[in-house]
Amino acid sequence: MIQFNAADLVWLLPEIILFVTASAVVLLSVIVRPEARSGLAALAVIGALAAGWAAYGLSDGNVELFSRMVIVDPFATYFRYLFVLAVLGGVLLSVRTLQTEGGNRSEYYGLMLFAAIGMMVMAEAGDLLMVYIGLELMSLSLYILAGFYRRETRSNEAAIKYFILGTLASGIFVYGLSLLYGLTGTTSIRAIGEIVSAGGLSRPALVLALAMVGTAFAFKVAAVPFHMWTPDVYEGAPTPVTAFMSVGPKAAGFAVFLRVFLEAFPAAQPDWNNLVIVLSILTMAVGNIIAIAQTSVKRMLAYSSIGHAGYILIGLVGGTAVGAGAVLFYLLMYTITNLGAFGILVVLQREKGRVETLDDFAGLGKTHPAAALGMLIFLFSLTGIPPMAGFFGKFYLFTAAVKAGYVWLAVLGVLMSAVSAFYYLRVVLAMYMQEPAAAGAGEPMSQPSAVLAVTIAAFLTVGIGILLNPLLSLAAASLPKM
Amino acid sequence: MPETHLPTQYLPVLLLLALAAGFVVINLVMGSLVRPKRPSAEKLTPYESGIPPIGQAQRRFNVRFYLVSMLFVLFDIETVFLYPWAVLLKKLGMFGFVEMAVFIMILLVGYGYAWKSGALNWD
Amino acid sequence: MNLDQAFFLYFAAMIVVFSIVTITRKNPVYAVMALLVVFFHVAGLYVLLNAEFIAALQVVVYAGAILVLYLFVLMLLSVPREALGAAAHRRWPVYALVGGATTFEIALLLARSKFAPRPGPYPPDVVREMGSTQAIGTVLFTEFLYPFEVISLVLLVAMIGAIVLTKKWTPAQGGEEGR
Questions:
Q1: Residue A186: enclosing H or E segment and its boundaries?
Q2: Within the 20-79 window of chain B, which residues sit less than 8 Å (CB to CB) from chain A?
Q3: Chain A residue numbers touching B95 (CB-CB < 8 A)
Q4: pTM for this structure?
Q5: CA distances in angstroms from C77 to A458, C84, C89, listed in the order given
Q6: ipTM of the modeled complex
Q7: Domains parsed from chain B with CATH numbers
Q8: Cis, bond preceding A480 (omega within 30 deg of 0)
Q9: Distance between CA atoms of residues A111 and A100, nearest Å
Q10: pLDDT single digits (tens) A232-244
C-alpha cells in the first residue's frame, strides 16, 4: 500500500536543512538576548550555504519521489542554487537595517528561509498541488516580510496590498486547477500532459484553465497587466526585502511556468503562445516606459524589474529548448544584478532615513566613489551593456527568440533595452555629472555584511564573462523535461 | 440517470434541520403577529442590567483577541488532520505514526515559539 | 428533475443569493452572518457529493473558527457606522459590470465544455462502502504524504507571522519604545 523509502529523504536534504535552520532561528529569536540577535543572521547564512552545498551534492540526481509529488532533477537543482543565492543576498543585506528600522526581530531571517523552502517546493513540484502549496508557503512568508517594519506605514500598506492581491491570484490559480482536475481527473503535471496530448478535451474549458493558471504565474512574476501591486509593494517594503522579493519569487514563478507549460501543455502550445507574446510585449513596454517617469530610484527599479519579466517572457515564446535555457541563464544574471542594485540602496542608507530619490544620488561619484562604481556596474548590467552579466543574459534570450522565428520580438526587446538605457543612465549622470547636494544629510551607516554582499554581486556581474561557458552549459543541462 | 448517489442516510439530519428552522421561523412569525408593538426611546436602548448605557456598543477590541483566535484557527486545522489519521492508525501502523509525529513536531516549533514569545500570556 | 438536482439547485441558489447578500451589506457583522449561511450550504453540497468528512470540516473550520476570526478582525477595526455608508459602494455599477461580464464569460465557456474526467480509484460506491473519512485518510497519508507534511510548514509560518506582526513585545524582549 505504501511505497516509501526513508532513504528518499536524502533528496530533500536542502529543504530539511533550511527548515531546521529556520526553526532554530525562530525559536532562538525569543531565547537569546536582543543584542545577540544579529548572530542569528550568521546562523541563517550558514544554513543557506549548507543547503546550497547539499543541493550541489545531489546535483547529479534525477529522481521522482512520493508518487511524483517531488522531482529532483537538474532543473530543480539549478533553481535550488538560485534560491540559495537570493536568500543569502536577502539575509546579508538585512542585518543592520533590521536593527535600526525593523524593530530588531530576528524571526525575519527565519521567514526568509521559509520563503526559500516554498520557492524550492515550487521548482521541484511534479504535481500542481505542490505548486500551490509551495506558492502559498512562499507568498505567506513574503507578505509577513513586506510588513515586517511594523512602525512604518508604508511597510504596512505594502503588506496589505501584496496580501490582498496575492490571495486573489492564488484564488484564481486554484480555480484554474479545479477546472484542470475536472477535465482530466488528476493534478499530476505529467498525467495532465499525457491527457492533453492525447487530445479530445473540451477546448473552451482547457483554454480557460490555462488562462487562469497563467494569470496566477503572471501575477507572481509581475507581468503586465497583473503588475499593479509591484511598484507600491516594492517601494513600501523594507529595501532588503524588496531585493529578495524582486528575484526569488520571480525565479520561482518562471520555474513553474517552464515546468507546467512545457511539460503539461506542449500540446496546447498554439493556445498559450499568443498569450505569452502579448504578455511579453505589454510587460516590456509598460515596465520600461513608466520607469522613465520615476523620480524615486527604488520605484524606478521596481518598474525596471517589471520590464525584465517582459524580456524573460520572450524566452518562453515558441516553447523551445533554446528559449528555456536562455530563461534559466537570464534568471541567474538578473538575480545577481538586481540583488546588487537594491543592495546599493541598502548600503547607502543612513541612520535616519533611506536613500531613494534621484537627488540623493547627485554627486555620489565624488562623495562615495565605491558605491557609485557599484551602482554603475549594476545599472550597466541591467541595461545590457557588455561585458556585464545582463548583456550575456539578453544576448541569449534574443538569440533564442530569433532562432524560434520571432525576429520582430527580439528587435522589440532590443528597442526596449534602448529605452531602459535612458532611465538607467540618468542615475549614472546624476552620480557623476551633478554636484553633490548640500552636506549634512549624514553618512551612510556601517554595514559590513551588506557591503560584502554587494561587493560579491559586483564582482560576479563584471566577471561573469570568465565563467560564461560553465554557466551556459549548466543552464543547458538543467532544462525541464519537454 | 443511471443511479442516484444521494446520501439517503442523511435524511434524518435533513428532517432535524427542517424542524429546527421551522421552529425558529414559526415562533418569530407568531410572536410578531401576537405581540403589541409600542416602541419608545427607552425600550429601544440596549439593556445593560438596568444601568444607563455608556457609549457605543461596538468598541474596538484589543489586538490580543486576534492573536488568540488566529492561534486557535491554526491548531484547529492541525486537529482536523488528526481525525482521518486516528481512524486509519491501525492500518497505517508505524509508518502513519511517524508521519503524524513529524507533522506535529513541525507545529510544535510554532507552539514553542508562541509559548516562549509570550503570545499565550494575556499581559 | 430528480431529487439530486433539486437539492443541488437549492444549495447552489442559496450560496449565490447569500454571497450577494454578504458583499452588499453595509454592516460588516450582517455580512459575516450571511457568510455563515453560505458556509453551511457549501457543507450541504459536500454531503450531496458523499464527502461527509469535508462537510464536517467545512462546519468546524470555516463556520466555527474562521468566521470567529473574521468577527474579531471586524471588531479590531471597529469602523464607525457612518464611515461605512457613502464611499464604499459609490462605484458599484462598474464593479458589477466587470464582475458580471467575467462571470458570464466563464459560464459561457464552461457551458460549451464537456467534463469527462477519468474515474479515479474512489468512485462514490467505494467511498460509501469504506466511509469518506477513511477514503480521505488513505489517500492523504500515502499518496499525498509530502503535501501533507509541507502543509504544516504553511501553518507554522502563519503562526509565526501572526505573532510577529501583532504581539506587543516587552522591553526585555527588545520591544520597541513608544508604540
A1: none
A2: none
A3: 2, 4
A4: 0.93
A5: 46, 12, 19
A6: 0.92
A7: 8-117 (1.20.58.1610)
A8: no
A9: 19
A10: 999 999 999 999 9
